[in-house]
Amino acid sequence: CYVHVAVSLLALALADYIVSIRAAHNDTIKSEAMSNRAAVFGVQGNFEKCLEDLNAAVLLNPENLNAYLNRSLLYTNTGEYALAIDDLSRYLDRKPDSEELLYERGMLHRTLSQSRLALDDLNRAIALNPDAPGLYFLERARAHAQAKHKKTARADYEEAERRGASLAADDQEWLKKKK
Fold first, then answer.
1. Tens digits of residue pLDDT in 70-96
2. CA angle 140, 142, 146 (to 5 degrees)
3. Of 21, 95, 117, 137, which sits most exposed with the smallest number of CB within 10 A?
4. How many CB atoms are closer than 10 A to CB 81?
């Protein structure tokens, strides 16, 4: 029953966005509506239509930060990490103090074995928010471990745990081997 309601609500949302896109009196409004419609397509699992709308939204308004952010999430979910980094970088060019997006981009850099770039982003994210959650320190510990910085990796693993982050089995194994 709840599934049918959710499907119906998504269909209504799509219909509303189609009307909004057609009625938009400028490219900025049309771009925002397309970005929002793309989110509905993403929830439906229609990633092709989602990407199509996000690409169109960026073309209509290169300043639409939501389109870049949403497209970076789509790229991350489809394993296209370099493209996700590109979109996060575009966003961060305009809003360089977004610690959450610095964290996300740092995590993606580490995933691509770009530990120096990962550390740059993660250090900035933590500097912007000294009360950052343990996950920030956990990710930075992984980047330090990847870069073979044993002492700083160990210190960040300890800080991550102190701040409530749970270490994965791989992290615990790394700590045991590096004693």
1. 999 999 999 999 999 999 999 999 999
2. 115
3. 95
4. 19
